[in-house]
């Protein structure tokens, strides 16, 4: 299949899926290498398509929900699972994690975590590959962009994180 046509099909595949699709799965589907898919995704992004890379694969997700907000958090790496559980258990989706690096500026990692299973998969990848969290670069301070369906869910998320001491207060 010619590259332009393959990219059209890849875009349709990702757009029609509610779950992330890995580069390996796309490579198998279109009978090309994983690296070709990575290049195709880069070209699709350059053409203006908002394709997110998550630990589980690529997806296109509209973040226009009833409620979208950013929170500042701080905690130890050992508390990451608990923090993420608090958000997804309350009905939120953790879109990403953002840190301010002194040299590179803002660094962002796409997460798109909707459930405890998503959080567990993310944490398994971190642990299995001995990867440091982005927040380790900033003494645990980081931002999360979160979406949810209702303002009441936002309040529940904030209350849960506040009760656990995870919300960042610059006076700490």
From TrEMBL:
InterPro entries membership: 3H_dom_sf, 3H_domain, HTH_11, NadR, WH-like_DNA-bd_sf, WH_DNA-bd_sf
Leader sequence residues: none
Keywords: Metal-binding, Nickel
Molecular function per GO: metal ion binding
Classification via Pfam families: 3H, HTH_11
SUPFAM superfamilies in alphabetical order: Putative transcriptional regulator TM1602, C-terminal domain (SSF75500), Winged helix' DNA-binding domain (SSF46785)
Residues that coordinate or bind Ni(2+): 75, 83, 142, 144
Residues of the Helix-turn-helix type domain: 6-58
Coiled coil regions, renumbered to chain: none
Annotated ranges, domain 3H: 71-167
Listed PANTHER family: TRANSCRIPTION REPRESSOR NIAR-RELATED (PTHR40068:SF1)
Name of the protein in question: HTH domain-containing protein
